[in-house]
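Re: beginner question about structure tokens

> Can someone show what the tokenized structure looks like for a real chain? I only ever see the sequence side.

Sure, here's an example I had lying around. Input first:
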Amino acid sequence: MDSGHTVHNLDCLLDESYPSEIKRNNWNELKLLSNSNSKFFELDLRFDDLEIALVDVDVVINLAAMPGLMKSWSDFHLYISCNLLAVERLLNSIAGKKIEFIQASTSSVYGTNAIGDENVDKIPSSPYGVSKLAAENLIQAYHKNFGVSYKILRLFSVYGPGQRPDMGYQKFCEAIIDEKPITLHGNGMHTRSATYITDCVDSILKLTLIEQTNFIVNICGNEEIETRNAVNILSDAIGKPAIILQGASRPGDQISTKGDTTFLKKLIGVTPQTTAKVGLTNQAIWAKNAKK
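And the corresponding structure tokens:
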């Protein structure tokens, strides 16, 4: 739907978490779907001059980051540069200007068990979570010292059609389709209150439009599901059995995520409603069709 806003899209199509070719295809598809109010800039937030992309901008929505828990143990410098240095450069670029800053954060700031509202203890269990919590603290420092208005959105495992190929549910879909084994780390009973993509986008758009600023809010699904049950739903939708192997626990893995969205409902009047079965089925069908 055309909201009438001019949107500046930035991406450096970094070839790290998954192949840049996939990102390039998504980038080109976005261009085709966009209207004349959209502008596109291939810029790296860590190194490039950002001024050209910030002309006549009222709000910056930073969805850029280096994601993933496991890789953050072996390449922490990459995570610091993408998840902290990039944020610092954006903040420097807008400090002193009337530009609101919206940051996509993560449930990983809570640590092994991300259960409860926004005020529970933040004890990250991975370098990735550490880098994202540091970015939150940096944003609040810029607010206190330079008056930068912010909204920090803690996203809980966004899934659905088009999910990143390095994320669990999409990897499970690919394995089931290709009749390859799925390794479930730990006991396979880890739980997630993941957020379906359309619910996530709807929440972000609504939060962007409200006048209230300088808050942190959870965005997550309203249903907790075990990993094994999620695999079963994907398998049923694809129409092939899942071959499951048991793997050792991994450092930094979250055991349970169950975010409280009371504050989200207070802010925008609604919370994510897509059930896990509907969302996972949609993703499985999309993944199956993408293979044809």
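Each token stands for a local structural state, so reading them left to right follows the chain. The chain has a mean pLDDT of 95.
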